[in-house]
Design brief:
By secondary structure, the protein is mainly β. It has one domain: Exo-inulinase, domain 1 (Jelly Rolls, Sandwich), CATH 2.60.120.560. Helix content is 0%, strand content 49%. Strands 1, 3, 4, 6, 11, 12, 13 and 15 form an 8-stranded antiparallel sheet that branches. The chain is globular and about 60 Å long.
């Protein structure tokens, strides 16, 4: 399928109250904590120069084919990364796929993270704004089988920026990621995620209106 096709939202969060601990698992494994900013209703990294990641840990259940979207609250500084996460493992395992926009190399990147926070670049595309993304713009990553797609909605609607193929991670939960070399320069203001559902198509010659016994293409058999 193409980027943006057949998304079905399962959960969203506008951070109108502190979502950490109650709805997201904060600082698992080697990930450092995020913190809630009640003034801007946003999330930020607790410490500068640290990999801050959270995983959705609520009552929802997500399919293996899933997407995640994060909304930018602030994205500046000389070296900041904001990312949506999919197929995030729980507990002490830091594996996930990240769809990231970074201001250091002005790049759109799809990463695979592994235990002990190893980062593998699966795809890199130059062209991101060196000044960072604006408030209200979004970053999305999709995982459908081994196909990975990352996009943003900067200026021209939700647009695919880069793609990759990787079959290492097959399941997990969506989440978020923040890195900043300066405290408070990178914040996320909202989050949403859901399933990528392949539509069911009736076999050729069968009517979608009535597939009862003895009826083909609307004509009863004698």
């Amino acid at each position: 399928m193409a980027y943006g096709d057949n998304r079905t939202e399962v959960a969203s969060d506008a951070f109108t109250d502190d979502p950490l601990s109650a709805r997201f698992s904060n600082g698992e494994g080697s990930w450092t904590d995020m913190a809630y900013d009640s003034v801007t209703d946003s999330l930020e990294a607790v410490d500068q120069n640290s990999n801050s990641g959270v995983r959705r840990d609520n009552s929802e259940s997500f399919a293996n084919d899933q997407y995640c979207t994060v909304t930018v609250e602030e994205h500046g500084g000389a070296s900041t990364w904001l990312a949506a996460r999919v197929r995030s493992a729980s507990g002490t395992d830091e594996t996930a796929y990240l769809g990231s926009d970074d201001t250091f190399g002005n790049e759109y990147i799809i990463y695979e993270t592994s235990t002990s926070l190893g980062f593998t670049e699966l795809s890199v595309q130059t062209g991101a704004d060196s000044g960072g993304m604006s408030q209200g713009e979004t970053i999305t990553i999709e995982a459908e089988g081994s196909a990975l797609r990352m996009g943003t909605n900067e200026g021209s609607g939700d647009t695919e920026r880069t793609t990759a193929t990787d079959a290492t991670l097959t399941s997990g939960d969506p989440g978020m990621y923040i890195y900043s070399d300066s405290q408070g320069d990178a914040k996320l203001g909202a989050w949403s995620a859901g399933d990528i559902v392949i539509p069911t198509i009736p076999p050729p010659g069968l009517s979608g209106a009535n597939l009862g016994f003895g009826q083909i293409s609307g004509t009863m058999l004698s």
